[in-house]
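look at this fold:
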Amino acid sequence: MSAKFFSLEALSSSFKVLSKPKSTSSLQYKFSKSHATHFKFQKYNSSLAYQLGGLMSNTVLFFQFEGTLLKSSSLFPYFMLVAFEASGFLRALTLFLLYPFVCLVGGELGLNIMVFICFFGIRKEKMRIGNSVLPKFFLEDVGIEGFDVVMKCGKKVAVSDLPRVMVEGFLKDYVGVDVVVARELRVVGGYCVGLMEEMNTKGLESSQILGDGKPSNSQTIGICCHNKFLHQQLLSQNCKNVFLVSEAEKRNWKSLPREKYPKPLIFHDGRLAFRPTPIATLAMFMWLPVGFCIYFIRFIVGMFLPHCLCNPILAFTGTITTVSVQPSSSNTSANGEDQVKPRGRLYACNHRTLLDPLYVQVATDKSLTAVTYSLSKINEIIAPMKTIRLTRDREKDRNQMDKLLSQGDLVVCPEGTTCREPFLLRFSPLFAELTDDIVPVAIDVQADMFYGTTASGFKFLDPIFHFMNPNPVYTIRILEKLQPSDTCMFGGKSRFEVANLVQNEIGKALGFKCTSLTRKDKYMILAGNDGIMKESR
């Protein structure tokens, strides 16, 4: 099929952007009959949206992923994420030091060098980064202009320079593409050898993509970059019209806002909390020696000094901790005298890092016992508070927690696992049936360089990465104690109602959205298991 090529500079000239009122922010794409090979911007209105929806749903789109969706033209950040998550600092440093040479040779050779550095020697079952780590960074780099065009088309075929393992999960889960054209990595004996197979372009005719239900008025278009000649050839085989995106145009694109994500970004893995551009990566490697020294100071201070001394010292090293306590949650009576209670108080908090119970202990200035589902042996030994491991046997865990409450105050994270994004996972209702003295605790954590949590890595490194951040931020809000009428024993509520109430109260305090997702959901998405196999790490 012969194709006509159009630059998106020319395409932009046919995008007649009308002046819009301040209340209007949406732009829609219309296939112009007067310019049969061009798109045209028009302001949104309900009748126009109806017409556009019917027309674009019959369009088959072949597009080059990096050129059509991503604002940045550099692939280095994504390969740095792969290198860091695959083997840590050493492989990441190797990629960083060789990147000037990669830029010098450029093109296909430079791409192959980065693939070799990042994937050589990696076990096949560990290559889940395209599902667990990269989607977050892809979404943050998506341009809303290209995204709107792609999402309006009915059938989508994505072509990518990156290995399939890096892009297929994101393109199918978040963009809804029907076919991903990308190269496979060569695997020998279960290990990647760092080489890519040749791209297979067979069977990509638009008639086969549409299947038997091909509409009579369907059309096939393509979008790719100016400098991607091979992609232009591929698209010209299937598309009558191919639009070319220039780098100058992409520099003016706006980032896709979070509320326009095709689906919420709830789970993601990986240690790096920033986009590892070359400059940002250089800053990270320069910070590492200082960061490790600061971690060591913070660790020693937190382990051996009382709270009244360690808090100002930790603040001096850059940690930011904010504590707010509602007066009704204090353990005093109306006349100010300490209440004599036969059993301890239960603090139920959401879970951001494994340090949550420790920060609750600091905030309450009490000696607490923490119950956990997954804590590494190393962290269990060095923890400056009493920790008890749960067995996931409901009766055994209930008896254990009941015994601990008879001995003193208890802190528990009913979610059972951490969540980085502003969402709350389902709260296990076990804690609700143990006592009526329940205090919700809302916790939020901000990291500027490293995440202190992992689903597929070594959990004993979690506090190290957290305290290596230049300015780790912890916010603890001790909320009002549950009213007797809202509990199981005095209020007659079910344990599920109480657990949901605590979840909702914490969600309101933090501005987080409550979900019914569980620990198993998280680990199946990020690590491909139920979350129990990794507990010993």
User: Anything to note?
Assistant: The radius of gyration is 27 Å. DSSP finds 21 helices and 19 strands in the chain. Residues 5-54, 332-338, 533-537 have pLDDT under 50 and may be disordered.
